[in-house]
Amino acid sequence: MTYAILWQPKDNKYLPFFVDGEEFKNYQARRPVGLSDKDLIKGILHEYTNEDTEYPTLKSSWLSILSDLTQSFEYESLEKLILDAASHTRTEHGCKASKLMLEGGIKLIPRSAQIREDLTLDTNVVKRSYL
Q1: CA dist 129 to 2, 30, 34, 100, 123, Å?
Q2: How many CA atoms does the CB half-sphere of 125 hold within 13 Å?
Q3: Domain locations in the chain as residue ranges
Q4: In angstroms, rounded to a whole number, what is the distance separating the alpha carbons of residues 37 and 42?
Q5: Which of 10, 74, 79, 11 is nearest to 40 (CA)?
Q6: Are the beta carbons of 44 and 74 closer than 8 angstroms?
């Protein structure tokens, strides 16, 4: 795996950050890790459907955080933000990681045909890789 989810405290709860690239190398070497809003977006999407986390979370606030970040990054919609985050992750880390993000995305926007389509494609690729 070339990425990690780092949980950081915020107001007695924890937020997930998706760390990869140089920051992942820093994490592995136990050096300080810089966390960005993009890492938070990917972390929330990656962990949205994870029910087994050991960290106390407040998932009800995650949609609000993503909505704020959608505006901050000047995306036309939350759907576009989700699709772009998953696409970038797929390019860097493969379909398994992007599939997890799209599963979170479809929970957030259940009527999104584009998220559902990308999720179906990633699911099929992941299934074939396990054959």
Answers
A1: 18, 32, 33, 16, 10
A2: 14
A3: 37-129
A4: 9
A5: 10
A6: no
Alpha helices in the chain (DSSP H): 21-28, 37-47, 62-72, 78-93, 95-108, 113-129
Which positions ≥6 away from 110 have C-beta within 8 Å? none
Task: Say which residue the tokens 């993000």 belong to.
Answer: 101
Contact 107, 49 (CB under 8 A): yes
What is the separation of C-alpha 71 from the centre of its chain, rounded to a whole number of angstroms? 17
* Dist. CA 40–CA 89, nearest whole Å: 13
Best CA proximity match to 112, nearest among 82, 63, 79, 83: 79
pTM exceeds 0.90: yes
pLDDT digits (tens, 9 = 90+) for 79-130: 999 999 999 999 999 999 999 999 999 999 999 999 999 999 999 999 998 7
Residue listed under structure tokens 């990308």: 118
Q: Which two tokens stand for residue 119?
A: 């999720």
Long-range contacts made by residues 22-26, C-beta under 8 angstroms, separation at least 24?
A: none
DSSP assigned state of 50: -
